[in-house]
Design goal:
Number of strands: 2
Distance between the termini: 78 Å
Largest sheet: 2 strands, parallel
Order of helices and strands: HEHHHHEHHHHH
Oligomer: single chain
Structural class: mainly alpha
Number of helices: 10
Radius of gyration: 23 Å
Strand content: under 5%
Shape: globular
Length: about 230
Amino acid sequence: MKIRLFFALLLTSLIYACKHDVINPPTDPTSPIDIGGGGGTKPPVSDTVCFNTEVLPLYVSYCGSSGCHNDASRQKGVILTSFSRITNGITSKNASRSDYYTIIGDKMPPRGRPQLSNEQKNVILKWINQGALNTNCINTCDTTKFTYNDPIKTLLTNNCLGCHGTKPGSGNVYLGDYASAQSYINANKANFLKVINHDPTLPVSKRMPPSGKMVDCQIGQFTRWVNKGFPQ
């Protein structure tokens, strides 16, 4: 009887010990880390800044455009069009030692070009403080929202206005306010939707945003905004 009781107690202690034996695999900061999923109608709650949808578009639109720090222009030998290139000038969890952050608003973007807002700079700061990881969000937006004020204006600001936010805009396309965005897109509906869907029939240079195709739920928000008559 005592032997059976001993083994029963031993087995119980092992079971409880195993419940707390959690091993976390090491994270490679250069590899994309997927966050979220599903169709995007009910985005998961997360405080993590997504590199692919929140940080990369800012650097590409405001800094890595044609003639500046893209792959072709390489101004001053700097390219800001990918995670590996951007993190060359970022020190994880130390914004004050991150050259590609401290220069924003000081010398870059150049005067006369659209500038990053304090809110956008804070997104980059938060990303740095969280470890400057290659976070890759998938369909983490609310597809039931599709008005200009929420979320189209923000999507345009982050993905487009670095090139199309100061008149006359790159390629004579200005999207800096509701009236201008509505007027241009309404006159070019079919092509605009092909552009943001990165339609393979278009040259790569014509697919927007240049930072890469937006996630499906963001494209869905744009598509509903256009098809529903550009609600403000």
